[in-house]
Design goal:
Two copies of one chain form a homodimer.
Chain A: E1 3-6, E2 13-16, E3 51-56, E4 67-73, E5 87-90, E6 93-97, E7 101-106, H1 120-137, E8 145-152, E9 155-156, E10 159-160, E11 167-173, H2 178-194, H3 198-209, E12 213-216, E13 220-223, E14 234-238, H4 253-271, E15 276-281, H5 297-300, E16 304-309, H6 316-321, E17 324-326, H7 330-339
Antiparallel strand pairs in A: 1-2, 1-6, 3-4, 4-7, 5-6, 7-11, 8-11, 8-15, 9-10, 12-13, 13-14, 14-16, 15-16
Helix pairs in contact in A: 1-4
């Protein structure tokens, strides 16, 4: 079973998949998985695990075809669901039995490649599903964080994903990742000094300056961040302060769908359907309400989507310093994206 | 000119290369640079910038062919050398004019692909050159850190490097990167609690346990770390505590060359010449000797080389959490590497 192992120096965690241990012969250069028949299309429900949740036609049965959005468990979960959480030491090292829930959100019953190809009603259902599952997973007290992410057209593991069917992934995990803690601590420290949310301040500065705006509607604001690590990196924030994506009001789902569709469409058209990651940044689950750390979290953090086209590759400099090199200034990226017509062709 | 821009939330720095701004059309999928005539071979000195330093035959002139190791400036430096360091704010954002020295260490006059193909005398000269350049660059008070790194056969930027001539890079920069600061702070905090260097403790545990050892000689120890983020990741540490690579005694150069040759040879043979990164972790330059932060640095940090074969690809989960998924347990990786005969064929 997978182990979560902690580096004894800096404290990052690694998931060591002892179960599906990869031998050298399995790391083949440029391995491409052949395009197979798509298991995510309507009518292929028997090829996936049983559904966990679906937005489906009234009276239709689980695992039958009449659905709009469908959530299933991953067949190759990053962490297994059934293990009992167990922490222990090994000399100076710390390890934990991995435990988690790894779900796939199939975003359309049709064989469509990306979110921006979906219509407004369908997008609303997708957002509703994200919010619903994140709130459902919160009920399990073992989990401290849930990550919603999307790997579009991306090399992941050693194989390039060639099933061109729009989907995202949800992973509930028993730890708050170091990256998330850092962001929370930084936002908290900013708030302590100024009594203002750092993300609300960023929104104000970006709206005033204008040069990095990508898209905007009544409830959401999309821009290329000042210190973008990836060319054409885009953040989408709710204009109204909100720490938890799970508390996004249903009246905002349509606007969120619209801004996602617009940003992803512009990226697809301008950059010729590049691979990208989309990640949701949101507050962690807070089961122990009394924890001092969480006292001001609803004021000091702010959920957002980060879209990072993967056009460059990290090498020794990035790994050694943590400093990314971005060859496209965000002002140029935003201008090009603003000028791009995202209309689906 | 490139700007160093600081993220206002977490505080990471990004280098925005405003000079060579990349337009969308330049990000082409799978772009491969054609194999060209190699500018790093002996006799091609006219095709590079003037040499900064060389280990060369007595009486031979700079930029003439009679050399063993040659250091030149990068033709496409990550940061330019001539700028004046200048810090300023832009609303809530911080930025700095980039300034740095970016050198290429050409490790052999022959068209050889990797360090492990070099003989012991040549390797000794390579190590001597690393140490010499790092100590020379320290004399410039603008620089806080120098990163020594190697991108072997790696996709870097958007093009795959196809000049198969062994070389490393040195980049002196005016900031201490966040990643380095974190490692230093963690090592310091460990030392404060225990009065022992965390890396010396790791060495003791690894030597005692034995399951993750890759290679060893009188002065150096190589192993796959407990929480390896990459399959077959290998660290090489001096057995005798030492914070600064620049203070590595010349009597150790031969042993360091031997352990590098052994580890890189094993990786090449076992994994069929995979792309890899090699990074040197060492203490930062300490111009302000009185800084409280540096008070115990010579006791609490420990230089090491990190070799990370690039066999997997990060995607949304890794970006969102900072947690890497490693499909090969370090115990399996070390066993396979130990059993591999690195003899150059």
């Amino acid at each position: 079973m997978p182990e979560l192992r902690r580096d004894p120096v800096v404290g990052y965690w690694t998931i060591i998949s002892t179960e599906r241990s990869r031998r050298p012969v399995e790391f083949r250069k440029g391995e491409i998985v052949e395009e197979r028949s798509c298991p995510f299309c309507a009518g292929k429900e028997g090829e996936t695990t049983h559904e966990v949740y679906a937005v489906r036609g009234e009276g239709s049965k689980p695992d039958s075809p009449d659905w709009d959005v469908r959530v299933i468990l991953s067949k190759a979960p990053i962490l297994p669901q059934e293990e009992v959480l167990d922490r222990c030491g090994e000399g100076m090292y710390d390890l934990m039995k991995g435990v988690g829930v790894h779900e796939i959100v199939v975003e359309t019953p049709k064989h469509q490649h990306d979110l921006d190809e979906l219509g407004p009603d369908q997008l609303e259902k997708v957002i509703r599903t994200y919010v619903h599952r994140i709130n459902e997973l919160e009920k399990d007290p073992r989990f401290k964080y849930v990550l919603l992410f999307k790997n579009h057209g991306l090399i992941s593991g050693s194989a390039r994903d060639v099933i061109r069917h729009s989907r995202s992934q949800l992973l509930a995990i028993p730890i708050t990742p170091k990256r998330v803690k850092e962001e929370l601590a930084a936002a908290k420290s900013y708030f302590e000094r100024r009594e203002r949310c750092v993300f609300c301040d960023i929104l104000r500065q970006e709206a005033g300056e204008g040069s990095r705006i990508v898209s905007e509607n009544a409830s959401f604001f999309a821009f290329c961040p000042f210190a973008s690590r990836a060319p054409f990196e885009t953040w989408i924030l709710p204009k109204k302060h909100c720490a938890d994506f799970g508390k996004c009001p249903p009246s905002d789902f349509r606007d969120l769908g619209a801004v996602l569709k617009d940003c992803l469409g512009k990226i697809r058209v301008l950059l010729n359907d590049p691979p990208y990651n989309m990640i949701l940044h949101t507050a962690p689950y807070r089961h122990k309400k009394k924890e001092i750390y969480w006292k001001t979290i609803e004021e000091d953090t702010h959920w957002y989507f980060q879209i990072s086209p993967r056009l460059t590759h990290d090498a020794g400099f990035e790994w050694g310093t943590g400093i990314h090199i971005n060859p496209t200034p965000p002002e140029d990226a935003a201008l090009l994206l603003r000028e791009t017509d995202a209309a689906v062709t």
